[in-house]
Amino acid sequence: MARVAVIGAGFIGSSVSLHLLQEHGKSVQLTLISESFSPDTTSDKSTALMLPFDVIPPSGGDGIVEGVGDPEEWLKDTISHIRGLHDSPEGGLMGISLIHGVRALAEQPTTGSLPWWHEHAYGYRTLSTDEVKSYNIPSGYPWAESFSTYVVDSRLYLPQLLSKIKALGGNTLHSKIESISELTSKYDIIINCSGLGSAVLASDSTVYPVRGDIVSVHAPWIKEFTILESPTSITSVIPRPNDVLLGVTAIPHEHSTEPSEETNQLLIRNGTALVPSLKTAKVLTSWAGLRPMRSKVRLCIDSSYKESVVVHCYGHGSKGGCFHWGCAVQVGKLLHSAIIEKSNSN
Ligand SMILES: Cc1cc2nc3c(=O)[nH]c(=O)nc-3n(C[C@H](O)[C@H](O)[C@H](O)COP(=O)(O)OP(=O)(O)OC[C@H]3O[C@@H](n4cnc5c(N)ncnc54)[C@H](O)[C@@H]3O)c2cc1C
């Protein structure tokens, strides 16, 4: 049996754990170790729309991965996994819904082509000028696209992943790991999915927080999402099964998650300007989360460890939701032979 430790119980660590248990069953003895579990991870603070709105294609420049994997495959695998759950009796329990809406940009994309992710959005099309007006889009946003995609309420989704992990025999341990070396004598395989914690655990000074604030309101009549993006701000109104999220800030290098009443009021004002009926919506709660940003997602074996096989999977920034299951599949592929080898030798 291969002894496996996964560090981190956000989107990434939870899905890596579940995928390994589903793939290898009793050949792995898996422990999910985390300083925090749902509802206290960054993943719980996510909007968790299943699309990455990046302008740069994953293959553009020198890529967005350090190590192995193709982000378009990660996205495809994640959407396919979420679609399967959405269409099953579990979909509601896991907080997954399929929503339609509009995203408008202050600057028309200069590439002249459709965004790289458009094939993974259902019914994607660009809107005419008249259609843009009909959506109450302000005049500074001349270009818009409409599509449907999934949104996941991670506060429902993550506890369900955890239940499945336990049902398959996985253990959980509430603990802060100070160094990966602490674990090498006890585990054959260690997978670091600690997000921002990797600044310490992987001695990686290139991971940094990008704070995102969100206000959650009760407005069940809102069925469509609306997103406005300019180079300096994002206004989003995102309906989920049990609330509507008004967002969102993106403040680099901000480490605090202290609530800001001023920011919340701004998000409510911006959301209401976009969707006036939100004026009567009751505020439920608000929060701030820290996206684990890095110029590239790091998904690779760390060959500096000799005693155990150590894999890093962190730095998903604003895309950990829409890449999570695909990354779990990728980690599974990377470790497949090591797990078989260890489970045969122990
Ligand atoms: C406001 C906001 C909106 C977002 N919207 C979207 C979106 O629409 N779509 C999308 O795809 N993504 C979105 N994201 C990004 C997404 O939420 C993140 O990329 C994702 O949550 C990262 O997941 P993770 O598992 O890597 O990190 P985390 O959720 O931070 O999990 C890391 C885990 O590691 C644990 N840990 C850390 N250090 C240690 C240690 N030393 N010892 C033990 N455990 C440790 C933590 O306790 C935690 O459990 C958004 C994020 C925010 C904040």
From TrEMBL:
What Gene3D superfamilies does UniProt report for this protein, alphabetically? D-Amino Acid Oxidase, subunit A, domain 2, NAD(P)-binding Rossmann-like Domain
Locate the FAD dependent oxidoreductase domain: which residues?
3-330
Molecular function as annotated in GO: D-amino-acid oxidase activity; FAD binding
List the subcellular locations: Peroxisome matrix
Query: Keywords assigned by UniProt?
Result: FAD, Flavoprotein, Oxidoreductase
Name one process (GO BP) from the record: D-amino acid catabolic process
Family classification: Belongs to the DAMOX/DASOX family.
Q: What is this protein called?
A: FAD dependent oxidoreductase domain-containing protein
Q: What organism is recorded for this protein?
A: Amphimedon queenslandica
Q: Which gene encodes it?
A: 100633171
